[in-house]
């Protein structure tokens, strides 16, 4: 059965997020001064062929651990949908 | 009132996603051969000070249009949560 994994990989909250800081400053320069605490990470989607949703989640979790997330500096969260 | 915008910025489906292709090949080399159609984009979160959720959404939408998304090659979707 085909599942879709929706993965967010974000810098750990404790770490400085220079990219987020840069985006925040640019938004303020564009007049959007009511925006704070910008954090920038990766959003990854993938199709997973698996017997069950749990099996698909396991595969996506493994993909994050092995490749997508740098566990020293990033955390990840993932959701699985059918199709 | 403080809201959080959760924004996903992804390459348009019609376009080739070389980064996604590279991730897909790497995952196959790592033994995760049941993964296809990997797409890689950005996930941005930000705190927005606004009177209502609609006003916060408008600000986040403007941030995407003005800065975060390259409208020629990317699409974006956003959700607003309280706090």
| Beta-strand content of chain A | 35-45%
Number of domains of chain A: 2
The rough form of chain A would be described as elongated
Strand order of the largest sheet of chain A: 2-1-3
Number of β-strand runs of chain A: 3
Give the helix/strand class of chain A: alpha+beta
SSE order of chain A in H/E notation?
EHEHE
Share in helix of chain A: 25-40%
What does the main sheet of chain A amount to?
A: 3 strands, antiparallel
Whole-number mean pLDDT of chain A: 96
Kindly report how far apart the N and C termini of chain A lie.
Answer: 8 Å
Low-pLDDT ranges of chain A: none
Protein name (chains A, B): Phosphoribosylformylglycinamidine synthase subunit PurS
EC number (chains A, B): 6.3.5.3
GO molecular function (chains A, B): ATP binding; phosphoribosylformylglycinamidine synthase activity
Catalytic activity (chains A, B): N(2)-formyl-N(1)-(5-phospho-beta-D-ribosyl)glycinamide + L-glutamine + ATP + H2O = 2-formamido-N(1)-(5-O-phospho-beta-D-ribosyl)acetamidine + L-glutamate + ADP + phosphate + H(+)
Task: Give a description of the structure.
- Chains A, B: It is found in: Cytoplasm.
- Chains A, B: Part of the FGAM synthase complex composed of 1 PurL, 1 PurQ and 2 PurS subunits.
- Chains A, B: This is Phosphoribosylformylglycinamidine synthase subunit PurS.
- Chains A, B: Belongs to the PurS family.
- 2 copies of one chain form a homodimer.
- Chain A has 83 residues and is an alpha+beta fold.
- The first copy, chain A, has 2 domains: 10-41, no CATH class; 43-83, no CATH class.
- Helix content of chain A is 34%, strand content 41%.
- Chain A has 2 helices and 3 strands; from the N terminus they run E-H-E-H-E.
- The first copy, chain A, has a 3-stranded antiparallel beta sheet.
- The longest helix of chain A has 16 residues, at 53-68.
- Chain A is elongated and about 50 Å long.
- The relative contact order of chain A is 0.35.
- At the A-B interface, strand 1, helix 1, strand 2 and helix 2 of A face strand 1, helix 1, strand 2 and helix 2 of B.
- Strand 2 of chain A pairs antiparallel with strand 2 (35-49) of chain B.
